[in-house]
Amino acid sequence: MRMEIIGVGTDIVAFDRMEKGARDPAFLAAVYTEAERREAASRPVPLHYYATRFAAKEAVYKCIGGDAPEIRLSDIEILSLPSGKPAVALHGRCRELAAGLGIHRIHLSLSYEAGAAVAFAVAESL
Questions:
Q1: Which CATH class is domain 4-125?
Q2: Measured between alpha carbons, how far is 112 from 48 in angstroms, rounded to an integer?
Q3: Cα separation of 42 and 80, whole Å?
């Protein structure tokens, strides 16, 4: 079985641009799933969590094509595995679009430093 790269995406988010949203319950509910909000609350600096996950959601969106206005960022869920590695789960229309493109798996790398978070995503098919 041969795997193929379907899409790549990257995004960067400055912490100072995310600060207001990270304090706004309506923004958080619109962008992050309940599980993501719980995970953020368990972190020493929730802002870092929110910024890296926002960058990740944008990077994943770009993997899927980046031109589907019907995708909600909350349909892209980024949670941490017990190892700490981020894992992507797609829901709703986003999941349908990814399946239509033949996307089987999305690899994700997250990092932050000096006031910004960055994410890089690679979507692959079987």
A1: alpha beta
A2: 7
A3: 12
Q: Report whether 109 contacts 116 (CB < 8 A).
A: no
Asked if 31 contacts 74 with a C-beta cutoff of 8 angstroms, the reply is yes
Residue spans per domain, the chain: 4-125
The Cα–Cα gap between 98 and 105 comes to: 9
pTM exceeds 0.90: yes
Question: What are residue 94's phi and psi, to 5 degrees?
Answer: -60, -45
Q: Is the dihedral of CA 111, 73, 10, 51 positive or negative?
A: negative
1 pLDDT above the threshold of 70: no
pLDDT value of position 65: 79
Question: Which tens digits make up the pLDDT trace of 90-122?
Answer: 999 899 999 999 999 999 999 999 899 999 999
- Rounded CA gap, 88 and 36, in Å? 11
Run of H or E residues at 58: helix 46-63
